[in-house]
Amino acid sequence: MKPTSTNTITVETTVNAPIEKVWDYWTNPEHITKWTFASDDWHAPYADNDLRTGGKFKTTMAAKDGSFSFDFGGVYSEVTEHRVIAYGMEDGRKVIILFEADGDTTKVTETFDPETTNPVEMQRGGWQAILNNFKKYTEAN
């Protein structure tokens, strides 16, 4: 499955951790709630993940001051352990995440269809900030 837009956005990072740990921290709700936010004034108070093709996931992202929250979720179209996670969001946009292991490091690349409300650079910055938070959390724990 590939994103549907020709104007996809890609963000990536290399995590200093082996693929087994990266996969666990990316997919386990216990860890998802610890990194799925772009800034320190937000948090993820809830995560549920049925990691299989056809399975659903949902993560609640919320401002710590209680002023705003939303659920981010979708349905998996492909799950290949330690390699690929692809899903569709409720609005029809597609996302694919590639995991590339190289010993004790793992490259994570996310490519997604942009939404039409916010500028592309804002979307890229937000998704990259969350990915950077994932790297920081995974390497520190």
Automatic annotation (TrEMBL):
InterPro entries: ASHA1/2-like_C, START-like_dom_sf. Residues 16-138 form the Activator of Hsp90 ATPase homologue 1/2-like C-terminal domain. Belongs to the AHA1 family. This is Uncharacterized protein YndB with AHSA1/START domain.
